[in-house]
Amino acid sequence: MGQMIKVGMADLKICKAPDALTTIGLGSCIGIAIYDPSTKISGLAHVMLPDSTAIRNNSNIAKFADTGIQKLYDDMIKAGANKARMVAKIAGGAKMFEMPGASTSINVGDRNAEASRAKLKQLGVRLVAEDCGLNYGRTVELYSETGEYYIKAVGKPLKII
């Protein structure tokens, strides 16, 4: 077992087996895991918002699904990952605050998940599993040896996707 590398909020990192990546406290945020099973290069991004184009003078590309996933993908290709073999798994996108009478258009979690799916599709990265929505936060761990994506939530059994 290698080291566990922490990915902060609005952050992204890549690693190679035997190392693993983790990010804690995914509420409405999405943890996007991309993995190349052949080179065992993995990447994890913790995105907070769906669309960078809505904000001017944006310098933090990892904060947004559109730019964060693009950067993660580019970094993995640079590190030697093969785009034809890359697969993705996503988790998070919870509805953390139930607002009576609120329309779904303000549900950032849903929009983050949708934007993440759309960007992966645009890049041609197959989304093979996801654990999104509901109303609880998640901590995730991506193991580059196996590509397993562990999802932990308080009071819930460990889920591996």
UniProtKB/TrEMBL annotation:
GO terms for biological process: chemotaxis. It holds the Pfam family CheD. The keyword Membrane does not apply. InterPro entries: CheD-like_sf (IPR038592), Chemorcpt_Glu_NH3ase_CheD (IPR005659), Cytotoxic_necrot_fac-like_cat (IPR011324). SUPFAM superfamilies: CNF1/YfiH-like putative cysteine hydrolases (SSF64438). Keywords: Chemotaxis, Hydrolase. It catalyses: L-glutaminyl-[protein] + H2O = L-glutamyl-[protein] + NH4(+). GO terms for molecular function: protein-glutamine glutaminase activity. Its EC number is 3.5.1.44. Probably deamidates glutamine residues to glutamate on methyl-accepting chemotaxis receptors (MCPs), playing an important role in chemotaxis. Belongs to the CheD family. This is Probable chemoreceptor glutamine deamidase CheD. It comes from Pseudobutyrivibrio xylanivorans DSM 14809. The lineage of its organism: Bacteria, Bacillati, Bacillota, Clostridia, Lachnospirales. The gene is cheD.
